[in-house]
Specification:
Elements (H helix, E strand, L loop, with lengths): L4 H18 L6 H5 L11 E2 L1 H4 L1 E8 L1 H22 L4 E7 L2 E6 L5 H15 L11 E6 L3 E6 L1 H25 L6 E5 L3 E7 L4 H8 L5 E7 L12 E5 L5 E5 L4 E2 L3 E8 L6 E7 L1 H13 L5 E5 L2 E4 L11 E4 L5 H13 L6 E9 L1 H30 L1 H23 L3 E2 L1 H28 L6 H33 L3 H34 L28 H21 L6 H4 L1 E7 L6 H9 L6 E6 L4 E6 L9 H15 L4 E8 L1 H29 L2 H25 L5 H31 L5 H33 L5 H37 L1
Parallel strand pairs: 1-19
Antiparallel strand pairs: 2-8, 2-18, 3-4, 4-6, 5-6, 7-8, 9-11, 9-12, 9-15, 10-11, 13-14, 14-17, 15-16, 18-23, 20-22, 20-23, 21-22
Helix pairs in contact: 1-11, 4-5, 6-9, 10-11, 10-12, 10-22, 11-12, 11-14, 12-13, 12-14, 12-22, 13-14, 13-19, 13-21, 15-20, 15-23, 17-18, 19-20, 19-21, 20-21, 20-23, 21-22, 21-23, 22-23
Subcellular location: Cell membrane
Main location: membrane
Membrane topology: Multi-pass membrane protein
C-alpha cells in the first residue's frame, strides 16, 4: 500500500495555498503590508457585530409607490372625462387603484372604452412602457377601477428600487463612509450595512428621507373666515407653524444643479446654498419677479423648510435655505439634495447598531473561548488515542487554516455566530478521525497486514463519515436559506468546516498514516489511550434494551413537562421575534435599575423590560413596538437613550435594535419553516439511505429532543432569537449525525447475523459504537463549553442550548432511537406473521 505521488503532490499544493491565503488573517496589519508582492494580502472582513457599525433594512412604501404613479393622472383623467362629456361623480385614488364613480345615466360600455383609450394613451408616459400595463374592472353598478397589472407593479417597483439603491449609494459616498454594503433584498427592500458608523440618527435622516423638494406659493390663511380654497394644503414646519400652500408646484426639485452647507453672513447660522440649472433659473426668475412681497415656500417631503418673503427678482438662479439647522443637519440636507430625490419613499423596517467597543469585546470573547475549546478538544484526542490523536490534532489545525483560507478566498464575512460555527466545527471535525481510529483499532485485532487494516479501516469508515456529515450539512443548508443576518455566517463557517473535515480526515490523515507506517516500518498499529481510564472497548455487553421502557418513559415525561412549561411559562422571545426596541447599556459598575425604570416610565411608552448580563453591571432595555404613540420608533429610541444617559451619565450605549412587526413576523415564519424543512429533509435522507423504520425512529427522537430543548429555553429564560433557531437546527443535524453511526452498525449486523434476534443485534450495535458516541459527544461538548461560560451574553442563546442538546442527543440515540427501531421491527414481524 503506497501513497499516490500525484495525489500527495496535489495535497501538498492545496495545503500550501490554503496556508498562504489564510496567513494574513493571523498577522498584524504592518506585517501583512510587508509581505512579498507575490503573496496574498486579503483578510476576512469582519461583520458589524465584531467591528461595530450600523445595519438598516429599507422597504418601499407601497402607499407612496401607488400614490406616485396615480396621483399625477387623477387631474388628467378628470379633464379627459369632461372633454368627452362623460358625467362622473368622482375620480379618486383608493390604495392601489383609481376609482371612478358615475351617475346612473352613463352608459358603462362607452365609459369603459373611453377609459381604455385614456390608459393606453398615458401608459407610454410611465416608466414601464409595456402593453396591458393597466387593469380596468367594474366594481358594482356605478364604479370602475383602474389598477396596475401584477407584472407592471413588479417591474415598476424593481425600477424604483434600482434607482433608490443608486441614490442611497451616492448619499453614503458623499459623507465618506468606507466599505459600505448595499444589497437588494427581494423585490422591494434594500440592505445597508455601514462599518464604523455608530450614529443611527444621522443614517435615518440620510437614508429614510425621500428628499423630494419643491417650491410653492404660500397663500394668505383665511380659514378663520371659513375660506379654504381647493387645490391647497396645510403644511407645517419643524416648530409646528402652519402654512396654507398652493398644491401647484412652481419649481420642481429636479431642476437643482447643486447644494452645499454654509453659514449665513449676517446671523452666522448654518444654511444650505442651492443653485438651479438653466431651466430652474428661468422658472425661479419668473416666480420671484411676479411675486415680490409674497412668501415662497420651500417644501421637503411634505414639510415646510422655510417660507421667505420675496424682496426682489432673482435672475442668478441661486437661493438660500435657512432654518434652525445644526451644521450636521445642513450638511445632510445638502448631501440629499445633491444626490437627488428618491423615486419612492423608503421605510426603515429594521435598524441595528453596534459600538466599536462592543465589537472589540465580542472579538476577544469569541477568540479566547475558541482557543480554549481548541485546546480542550486536542488534549482530549491525545488522551484518548495517544500519539495517533496527535495526527488528528494536526488535521484539525489544517481544518481551521482551510476554513479561514476559504472564507478569505470567497470574500466571506466573519460574524460572532460565524466564530461559533468554527468552534463547533472543531468539535465535529474530529468526528471523522474518531470513526477512522475506532475502525482501525477494530480491524487491527484481525491477523492481517498493517496496510490491509489501514485500508479496511478507512474504507469501512468512509460511508459512515459521509452519512453522518450529510445530516449536519443538510441542517446548515436549511439554516443558510431560512436564516438571516449574522446567523447565515454561522451556517457558512459550520458547513465549510464540516466539508473540509471530510477532506482532511479522509485524504490528508490517510496519507500521513501510510507515510508514518512505511517510514517507521510499523508492523502492528496499536491505537491506545494515553490514560487507560479513558479507554472504552467495543466488545462491551451492556444490555441497554432492558431499560428501553424506562428510557422512553422518562423522555416522553420530560417532553410533556416541556410542552406544559412552554404553554404556561412561554419563551423569552427576543426582539427578532417580538419586534420593538432594544438598547444595550454598558455601565461597568453597579446600577440601581429601579431608578432607571422610574425615569423611563415617566415617558409613558408602555411596559419596559430589563435584563442584566455579564456580572449584572450591564443591562438590556426592551420596549414593545410603539404602535399607539404619536412618535415614531426612532423618536422613542432617542428619548429613551437621553433618559438613560441623564440617570447614568457614565454609561455607554453600545448597541441599539429596532425591529418592526413585519420583519419579526417574517423571522418567525422562517424559523418555523426551517425546523420543519430540516426535519423533513432528515426523514427523506434516512429513509433513502436506510429503511422507513430507521427514518421514523429518527424523526420521533428528533421531536422528543426538540421539545426538551424548547423546555430548556422556557425553564432557563434564555432569550429565544435567531441565534437560538440556529442552535435548534444545529442540534437537529447533530442528533441525527449521532444516530446514523448506530444505524449503520445495526444495518451491517442485520446483514451479517440474519438469524439473531433484533433485540440482541441492537444491543450489540450500541456496544460496538459506544466508544465513538461518547468520544464524539465529548469533543462537541468540550468545544462549545468554553463559549457557554466565557462567550458572553451575545452568544449564550446558542452555546448554552448546545451544551444541553449535545447531552440529550447522545442519550436519545441509545435510549429512544434504538428502542423505537426495536418496537417497529417487532411490529413489522408480527404483522408479517
Amino acid at each position: 500500500m503506497r501513497n499516490n505521488s500525484w495525489l500527495v503532490g496535489l495535497y501538498t499544493v492545496v495545503c500550501v495555498l490554503g496556508f498562504l491565503i489564510a496567513l494574513p488573517n493571523f498577522l498584524t496589519q504592518s506585517l501583512v503590508e510587508n509581505l512579498p508582492f507575490f503573496m496574498p494580502k486579503s483578510r476576512i472582513a469582519l461583520g458589524l457585530d465584531l467591528r461595530g457599525g450600523s445595519h438598516l433594512v429599507l422597504e418601499i412604501d407601497e402607499e407612496d409607490f401607488f400614490r406616485g404613479y396615480f396621483q399625477m393622472h387623477l387631474g388628467e383623467l378628470r379633464s379627459f372625462l369632461r372633454k368627452e362629456n362623460i358625467n362622473f361623480v368622482s375620480v379618486r385614488q383608493v390604495k392601489d387603484k383609481i376609482i371612478v364613480s358615475f351617475s346612473d345615466s352613463v352608459s358603462r360600455g362607452v365609459v369603459i372604452e373611453k377609459i381604455r383609450d385614456f390608459v393606453q394613451n398615458i401608459s407610454s408616459k410611465l416608466a414601464m412602457r409595456q402593453k396591458d400595463s393597466f387593469l380596468i374592472t367594474e366594481n358594482g353598478e356605478k364604479d370602475i377601477s383602474i389598477g396596475l397589472s401584477q407584472n407592471s407593479i413588479e417591474k415598476s417597483m424593481s425600477s424604483d428600487l434600482e434607482q433608490s439603491m443608486e441614490i442611497v449609494r451616492q448619499r453614503i459616498d458623499q459623507i465618506g463612509i468606507t466599505e459600505p454594503t448595499i444589497q437588494r433584498l427581494g423585490s422591494n427592500r434594500i440592505l445597508v450595512q455601514l462599518p464604523g458608523e455608530e450614529n443611527p440618527l444621522r443614517l435615518r435622516q440620510l437614508l429614510g428621507t425621500t428628499a423630494k423638494m419643491s417650491f410653492h406659493k404660500v397663500l394668505k390663511d383665511d380659514r378663520s373666515k371659513g375660506i379654504y380654497p381647493t387645490g391647497t394644503s396645510i403644511l407645517k414646519d419643524d416648530k409646528g407653524n402652519e402654512y396654507l400652500v398652493d398644491d401647484q408646484v412652481e419649481i420642481p426639485g429636479i431642476y437643482l444643479r447643486g447644494a452645499s452647507a454654509n453659514f449665513d453672513g449676517k446671523t452666522g447660522k448654518p444654511v444650505v446654498d442651492i443653485i438651479f440649472n438653466d431651466v430652474g433659473t428661468s422658472l425661479f426668475f419668473d416666480i420671484t419677479r411676479h411675486n415680490i412681497g409674497r412668501p415662497l415656500g420651500i417644501v421637503l417631503d411634505g414639510k415646510i423648510l422655510t417660507a421667505p418673503i420675496i424682496n426682489q427678482a432673482i435672475p442668478s438662479g441661486m437661493a438660500q435655505i435657512s432654518g434652525d439647522f445644526t451644521i450636521e443637519q445642513a450638511g445632510l440636507l445638502a448631501t440629499m439634495l445633491r444626490s437627488g430625490a428618491l423615486p419612492v419613499k423608503l421605510n426603515i423596517i429594521e435598524e441595528r447598531s453596534v459600538g466599536a467597543d462592543l465589537g472589540s469585546y465580542s472579538i476577544y470573547k469569541g477568540i479566547s473561548s475558541s482557543f480554549i475549546g481548541f485546546i480542550l478538544v486536542t488534549a482530549f484526542m491525545v488522551v484518548v488515542y495517544g500519539k495517533w490523536g496527535l495526527l488528528a490534532d494536526f488535521a484539525l489545525v489544517f481544518n481551521i487554516i482551510f476554513t479561514v483560507g476559504l472564507l478569505t478566498f470567497l470574500g466571506g464575512t466573519l460574524t460572532l455566530p460565524g466564530i461559533a460555527g468554527i468552534v463547533l466545527g472543531i468539535g465535529l471535525a474530529v468526528d471523522s478521525n474518531v470513526l477512522i481510529n475506532e475502525r482501525i483499532r477494530s480491524e487491527s485485532r484481525k491477523d492481517r497486514s498493517v496496510f490491509y487494516n489501514l485500508d479496511m479501516g478507512f474504507s469501512r469508515a468512509y460511508s459512515t463519515i459521509i452519512d453522518s456529515n450529510m445530516t449536519v450539512l443538510i441542517a446548515t443548508a436549511v439554516l443558510f436559506f431560512c436564516g438571516a443576518g449574522p446567523v447565515r455566517g454561522f451556517a457558512i463557517t459550520m458547513g465549510l468546516s464540516v466539508l473540509i473535515s471530510m477532506f482532511t480526515s479522509i485524504s490528508i490523515v490517510r496519507s500521513m498514516m501510510i507515510f508514518i507506517v512505511r517510514y517507521k516500518k510499523i508492523r502492528f498499529i496499536e491505537i491506545k489511550p494515553l490514560l487507560k481510564f479513558f479507554f472504552i472497548p467495543d466488545n462491551t455487553t451492556i444490555q441497554f434494551m432492558k431499560l428501553r421502557f424506562v428510557g422512553i418513559g422518562i423522555s416522553i415525561l420530560l417532553s410533556i413537562c416541556s410542552i406544559i412549561l412552554l404553554f404556561s411559562h412561554g419563551l423569552n422571545r427576543g426582539i427578532d421575534f417580538d419586534g420593538g426596541i432594544q438598547i444595550g447599556v454598558y455601565a461597568n459598575k453597579p446600577v440601581d435599575l429601579s431608578v432607571v425604570r422610574s425615569s423611563l416610565e415617566s415617558l409613558k411608552i408602555g411596559e419596559i423590560y430589563f435584563q442584566t448580563f455579564d456580572e449584572n453591571d450591564n443591562f438590556l432595555v426592551r420596549l414593545k413596538y410603539q404602535s399607539d404613540v404619536g412618535n415614531s420608533q426612532n423618536d422613542v429610541l432617542e428619548l429613551v437613550k437621553k433618559k438613560i444617559m441623564d440617570v447614568i451619565p457614565f454609561a455607554n450605549i453600545q448597541h441599539t435594535d429596532i425591529v418592526g412587526p413585519k420583519i419579526s413576523g417574517e423571522l418567525i415564519e422562517k424559523g418555523v419553516l426551517g425546523v420543519i424543512v430540516a426535519s423533513v429533509a432528515m426523514l427523506i435522507y434516512i429513509w433513502i439511505r436506510f429503511e422507513w423504520n430507521f427514518a421514523i425512529g429518527a424523526i420521533i427522537t428528533l421531536i422528543l429532543d426538540i421539545t426538551k430543548t424548547m423546555g430548556f429555553f422556557s425553564l432557563t429564560g434564555i432569550e429565544f432569537n435567531l441565534t437560538a433557531v440556529a442552535a435548534i437546527l444545529t442540534l437537529i443535524g447533530y442528533s441525527v449525525n449521532d444516530k446514523v453511526v448506530v444505524y449503520d452498525c445495526m444495518r451491517k449486523n442485520m446483514l451479517l447475523y440474519p438469524s439473531t434476534s433484533l433485540l440482541k443485534l441492537i444491543d450489540q450495535s450500541i456496544n460496538e459504537t459506544l466508544g465513538r458516541s461518547i468520544y464524539t459527544s465529548m469533543t462537541a461538548f468540550l468545544s462549545v463549553l468554553p463559549m457557554s461560560i466565557w462567550g458572553g451574553s451575545v452568544i449564550e442563546s446558542f452555546a448554552l442550548p448546545m451544551v444541553f442538546g449535545i447531552f440529550i442527543a447522545a442519550t436519545s440515540s441509545i435510549f429512544i432511537a434504538a428502542p423505537i427501531i426495536l418496537f417497529l421491527g417487532d411490529w413489522r414481524r408480527h404483522k408479517t406473521n
